[in-house]
Structures are given as C-alpha cells and as structure tokens.
Write a structure and sequence with these properties.
Helices cover 68% and strands 0% of the residues. By secondary structure, the protein is mainly alpha-helical. Helix 3 (59-84) packs parallel to helix 10 (228-236) and helix 13 packs antiparallel against helix 14 (323-332). The protein is globular.
Length: 404
C-alpha cells in the first residue's frame, strides 16, 4: 500500500524553496520601479516619539531584531532538546559534529581574513562565511531524497545547530556596540525569573512568553543584539511535565511553521536583494565579495571535511558516510545565506560593503550547494538499495555515529 503523500508545507524542501522565492522577490523589488518605495517601507519608523528615544525600530530592524529573535528562540529550543534527549546528550555522539562545526567556523573566517583582512573596515565581516543556514542546507540535501546515506542528514543537522550556537556567541561578543548596564541587568533579571519559574515547576508557557517579551526589550536597549534574548528564553523553557508531556516540544512545534514559512522568507525579502545595474566583474572581485564567497565555497568544506576525518580517526568513531559523501556534506554546509546575510548586516549595515557582502554570500551559497549536491549525487545510493526510511528511523533512535 502506498504511503500518503506528505503535504507540501511539511516537506523538508519547502523552507528552502520559500527562501529562494523570498530572495528572488527581494532582487525583483530592488531592481524594479518599486525600489524606492520598497526601501522607504523598510526604513519606516515603527516607534514614534517620545517612545523612540534611543531606540531605532524601523521595519527592517523589526525583522532583523524582532522576528529573528523568534528564529533564534526556535533554534535554541531545538538545541536544548538535542542536548537533553537527542544525540548531544551523549558526549561521544556529540564530539564529532562539535569538532567539525568549530573547524567549519574557523577555516572560512581565516579565508575571509586572508582575502579582506588588510582593510580594517572590511575585516569586520570575518564571521560572515562562518555560519550555515539550517533550512537551506537541509532543503538542498533533501533534493536527493532517500538516496542520501542514513545518518548524513542527522550529522548535518547536528553540525548546523552547533554552528548556529557559535554564530549566536559571535554576535553577542563581537557585534555588540556600547552596553547599557541597567538594561543588561534588567535582561538578566528576566532570564533569572524564567529559570525560577522552571525550577518551581510552572509548565504553562504564557508566563514565559510574557517575561521573554520583556527580556527582548531589555536586551534591545542594552546594546547586546536583541536576538540573543531568543536563545536565553529557550534555555528557560521546561522540557517535561510530570505527566510526560513536553512544553518545549509543544513550543517548538508551534513555532516551526511560523519560522520556516514566514519569518525566514520575510528576512530574505528584506535582506537578500541588491541593485544589479552596477554589478560587474569588479563587483565579484571586491575583497568582501571574494572573502565571503570563497570562505563559504573553500573555507567551509576545508574545515568541516578535514576536521571530521581527523576527529573520527583520533576518537576511533565511525563516519556517518563515505569520505566522498562527507566532502559533499561539507560543501552543503557552505550554504550560509540567512545567517551569513544576518551577520553581514550587523557588520556593515547600509555601508558601501553591504552590496558586495550580499553578492558574495548569495554566489558562494549557491555554488556550495551545487558542488555539494553533485558530489553527493555521484555517491548516493541507488533506488534498488535497501529501504532507507527504516534506517533513518534507526539512525534517529541510535544517534548519528553508531556503527550499523
């Protein structure tokens, strides 16, 4: 009997396609007669005086600081679940993707600095190619369907989650301007209050959301990037109730479609486009374009691939796929898009480096996806091989690195 077709909004590829559609719409708007009106909408102030004193919250900042805080809340919930009940609960399971992720952040940053680091203004974007876009990377991998070896998708998911955690730390440490101590104290008080509610056994979610909103406001005023509030809120959400139900899983389930179907495409519409009338060969040769693009295409797979093989040999752990598949997966990890554009916006705002940054990120992400898919397709299992659906279930139950 045939399985019922998966609804389009539940398919792994859908978020990736929506991001592509958002990026295409952004390009269309920036290169149409509506470009001026679209830019005016993005910079329309949402908070009027006297409430706007010291706070810049136009439409673009609402998307990048507000909606993306919800994105990081979702990522934080996923990370907490993986650490408590997923593969990360076992240090031996977590070691390989952690090492791969760290090397996969360091290598592209070094490639970027080697190309663009001579200019201090350009060097500020060193973290742009260090991040992996979870939705785009998994969406690209899903295009190969069941021919991908079991465990590879889980390894990429683990690597991307750790990568995003590293990106959050980078944002908090390196892309924070002046800090307002009183507001940071207010944010800390809100976070401690949420932890106290968890410790007291309160499992209803609405009190956490109310305090999380205050936490975001204090973080926005503090000078630390407001998206960090999403991660802190996720850490305070309780995992289990006495009856075994999970508030954390419930929150993750509710947020998932909003994040993947609305927030991330909206971010792409607001941030991915750039005018093409001035694009030339020199645009691609700009140090920021080259640094971001080659950091993703060369630095990311170089770091992930060498670290994965080296760590597996050192730790005597099996690989989740063949060396060629690991190389293909390492290239897929070079799809930076959302996170890279986000860090680039923090690094350069509306400065002269913003357009070359977007060009490098988009070109590098696209090329990384194409190379990775080509390598994985050449080593993928054939349709006549054993059913991988059951093997994927086993991989999820046992972890990403258990020998099978």
């Amino acid at each position: 009997m045939k399985r019922a077709a998966t609804p389009w909004h539940e398919r792994d590829t859908t978020p990736g396609f929506l991001l592509i559609a958002g990026a295409a719409l952004s390009f269309a708007l920036f290169n149409s007669p509506l470009a001026g009106a679209f830019d005016a909408v993005l910079h329309r102030q949402l908070i009027a005086p006297p409430f706007a004193a010291g706070v810049k919250l136009d439409v673009l900042h609402f998307i990048n600081d507000g909606l993306m805080a919800v994105f990081f809340l979702y990522v934080g919930l996923e990370l907490k679940r993986e650490c408590i009940e997923g593969p990360f609960r076992n240090p031996r399971e977590a070691a390989l993707p952690i090492i791969a992720a760290l090397a996969g952040m360091a290598a592209p940053a070094l490639v970027y600095l080697a190309i663009a680091g001579a200019d201090a203004a350009h060097a500020r974007g060193w973290a742009i190619p260090a991040a992996t876009d979870i939705a785009f990377a998994l969406g690209a991998l899903a295009l190969l369907g069941a021919r991908v070896a079991p465990g590879l998708r889980l390894f990429l998911l683990a690597l991307a989650i750790i990568d995003d955690l590293g990106a959050i730390l980078v944002i908090a440490i390196f892309y924070t301007q002046s800090i307002a101590g009183w507001a940071l104290g207010g944010a800390l008080a809100c976070f401690l209050a949420m932890l106290m509610l968890n410790h007291m056994g309160l499992k209803r979610l609405w009190p956490y959301w109310l305090i999380a909103l205050a936490l975001w406001a204090f973080m926005k005023l503090s000078g630390v990037h407001a998206t960090v509030a999403g991660v802190l809120a996720a850490l305070a959400i309780p995992m289990r109730r006495a009856d075994g139900a999970s508030p954390l899983l419930a929150a993750e389930h509710v947020l998932k479609p909003w994040v993947q179907m609305a927030i991330m495409p909206t971010f792409a519409v607001a941030n991915a486009g750039l005018p093409l009338n001035n694009i030339s060969l020199q645009s691609f040769l700009h140090p920021v374009s080259l640094g971001a693009g080659l950091g993703l295409v060369i630095g990311k797979p170089l770091g992930v691939f060498t670290a994965t093989l080296g760590a597996a040999a050192l730790l005597k752990r099996p690989l989740p796929g063949s060396p060629l598949q690991i190389l293909g997966l390492s290239c897929i990890a070079g799809v930076g898009f959302t996170m890279s554009l986000f860090i680039g916006a923090l690094a350069f705002a509306d400065g002269p480096e913003a357009a070359p940054m977007r060009l490098g990120v988009i070109a590098g992400s696209l090329l990384s996806a194409l190379i990775g898919l080509a390598l994985l397709a050449s080593s993928a299992r054939r349709p006549g091989d054993p059913d991988l659906a059951r093997e994927e279930e086993i991989a999820e139950e046992e972890g990403v690195l258990n020998a099978r």
